[in-house]
Design brief:
The chain is globular and about 70 Å long. Helices cover 42% and strands 20% of the residues. Strand 12 and strand 13 (325-330) form a beta hairpin. It has 476 residues and is of the alpha/beta class. The chain has a seven-stranded parallel sheet with strand order 11-14-15-10-9-16-17, with helices on both faces. Strands 1-6-5-4-7-8 form a six-stranded parallel sheet, with helices on both faces. It has helices at 5-27, 36-51, 55-71, 73-84, 89-102, 140-153, 167-183, 199-207, 220-227, 251-263, 280-292, 300-310, 339-344, 366-369, 385-396, 410-420, and strands at residues 32-33, 112-116, 119-127, 130-134, 157-161, 191-194, 213-217, 232-236, 242-245, 275-279, 296-297, 311-316, 325-330, 357-360, 376-382, 402-406, 424-427, 447-448, 454-455, 462-470. The protein has two domains: 29-237 and 456-467, Aldehyde Dehydrogenase, Chain A, domain 1, CATH 3.40.605.10; 242-435, 3-Layer(aba) Sandwich (Aldehyde Dehydrogenase, Chain A, domain 2). The structure holds nicotinamide-adenine-dinucleotide. Residues 134-139, 161-164, 199, 202-203, 217-219, 221-222, 225, 236-239, 270, 371, 445-447 line the site of nicotinamide-adenine-dinucleotide.
Length: 476
């Protein structure tokens, strides 16, 4: 029997592949490794194998990940609430399903072509290679599902460094998606993670030469860290989304939408309404409607006690020539907790149906100026819509993240959108309409305001490559 060189090379490649696959499985369970180096090296091999598969196969892997994520949406939601003590199971299920169903796949990658007197030029969206992805405690499984689908659809492998406080949920998500890929005939270790996630592991991932791109979803510290890494980095950072209600708004609908958005997953989402700014003329009516729709309105006398309990004083910085500063920070024991538990701490008992507390405060109150991620919404009355817009811009702190407005006046909505310059601006709906839940458009759990990609999707995880053919394939 004749056998040519190309066939021999193909057979050798297959044998090496299956051997590497088995080796990978020996040191890892479902993509989980003891060290960052092992995880990255395995991901480098997996990405090479992925690059040999065609786009249709890649889409099959994406479909398998979607299916596995949907099948495990409840399991992961329950794990996350149990492990982190934050959020609501039913809402986390919706978030997992949203990530599984509405994260774009390979259809997000589009080739551009230029034709003319000199032939044909193609501009293609190519993978970066191996991506290091750092994920938050607030959306542990959702971010991993969303990132994995987008990154792999774009032809990359990904090594996750999850938040240590959401370790089990995050590693379980990695394991589930990894298994789905392997069952669908994809390479082992296309998704990987370290067994013991930590700040040190995240830093090792950032510095590893096998990692070509970094994607950080979290607060300002991690965004700063990836942007100083010297690598291509996407930073999806903190927000403090204001919701503005003006005198032209449908107040009944605004009240319903605000409760739905601000209480969703106990206000953990970075896009959630964090402070309510309302024009005086309609403020009392809005407060009444919020109460009628089930919000608990805190009395003036209880606000100080809640504020003292909900914030702690933290030492910030110091070292070298810098003096240590003391600043207020949200009390971690209150972040993402049920409102019933939060209010119990100050001696108030509310029924289990109450999802949100609302309290009237001044514009400089810590609940307004800090991203507190609690189902307690501060309400600030202002005289005019112009004042409302100015305050919204001020308290968003230039994060360029998310803002929401309830209004029927096109000029007012345009004015807020133009001045606040956020990545997401939602009009007359709960904040989550901005990530595709009840609003048009795809879903993302990595919203990159600081680095400008916006709601990230497969195309955000690609590099452009140009292919030029001179004087050929021009057919007109
Ligand atoms: P966090 O910043 O504490 O942690 C996020 C991740 O970064 C974790 O994995 C953590 O271990 C790691 N990390 C933190 N500092 C680091 C450093 N200096 N070096 C290396 N790794 C570091 O955030 P969190 O509490 O998990 O999540 C809540 C924050 O994330 C909020 O500020 C929220 O607005 C933001 N967030 C933003 C988006 C978005 O899409 N823009 C999505 C979710 C959460």
């Amino acid at each position: 029997m004749q056998i040519d060189q190309a066939r021999i090379a193909e057979i050798v490649e297959r044998v090496v592949e299956s051997f590497e696959g088995r080796l990978g499985q020996e040191v890892a369970t479902g993509g989980i490794f003891s060290t960052v180096s092992q995880a990255v090296e395995a991901a480098v091999g997996a990405q090479k194998r992925l690059s040999l598969l065609d786009r249709e196969k890649r889409e099959q892997l994406v479909a398998a990940m979607r299916e596995a994520a949907m099948a495990n949406a409840r399991l992961l939601a329950e794990m996350a609430v149990r492990e982190t003590g934050m959020g609501r199971v039913e809402d986390k299920i919706l978030k997992n399903l949203l990530a599984a169903q509405k994260t774009p796949g390979t259809e997000d990658l589009q080739t551009q072509a230029y034709t003319g007197d000199h032939g044909l030029t193609l501009l293609e969206m190519a993978p970066f290679g191996v991506i290091g992805a750092i994920t938050p405690v607030t959306n542990p499984s959702e971010t991993i599902i969303n990132n994995s689908i987008g990154m792999i659809a774009a032809g990359n492998a990904v090594v996750f460094s999850p938040h240590p406080s959401a370790r089990s949920t995050s590693l379980k998500t990695v394991e589930i998606l990894h298994e789905a890929i392997v069952r669908a005939g994809g390479p082992c270790n296309l998704i990987a993670a370290v067994q013991k996630p930590s700040m040190e592991a995240a830093q090792a991932l950032m510095g590893h030469p096998g990692v070509n791109m970094l994607v950080a979803t979290g607060g300002p510290g991690v965004v700063r860290a990836v942007l100083s890494s010297g690598k291509k980095a996407i930073g999806a950072g903190a927000g403090n989304p204001p919701v503005v209600v003006d005198q032209t708004a449908d107040i009944d609908k605004a009240a319903r939408d605000i409760i739905a958005g601000a209480s969703f997953d106990n206000n953990l989402p970075c896009i959630g309404e964090k402070e309510l700014i309302v024009v005086e003329e309609v403020a009392d009516r809005l407060i009444q409607r919020l109460q009628r729709e089930g919000a608990y309105i805190l009395r003036a006398g209880d606000i100080d006690a809640l504020t003292r309990a909900a914030f702690i004083v933290k030492e910030d910085g110091g070292g070298g020539c810098t003096a240590t500063a003391r600043k207020l920070a949200p009390n971690p024991a209150f972040i993402g907790r049920d409102v019933g538990m939060i209010l119990r701490e100050i001696g108030i008992d509310v029924g289990r149906d109450v999802r949100l507390a609302v309290m009237e405060v001044g514009p400089d109150h810590p609940f307004v100026t800090h991203e507190q991620m609690m189902p307690v919404l501060p309400l600030v009355k202002v005289s005019t819509v112009e004042d409302a817009i100015a305050l919204a811009v001020k308290v968003e702190h230039g994060n360029r993240h998310t803002a929401i407005m309830h209004s029927k006046h096109v000029d007012y909505m345009t004015e807020l959108a133009r001045s606040i310059k956020t990545t997401i601006f939602v009009k007359n709906a709960p904040s989550y309409a901005g990530i595709g839940a009840g609003g048009e458009g795809f879903c993302s759990f990595t919203i990159a305001g600081p680095t400008g990609e916006g709601l990230t999707s497969a195309r955000s995880f690609t590099r452009q490559r140009r292919c030029v053919l001179v004087d050929g394939f021009r057919i007109i």
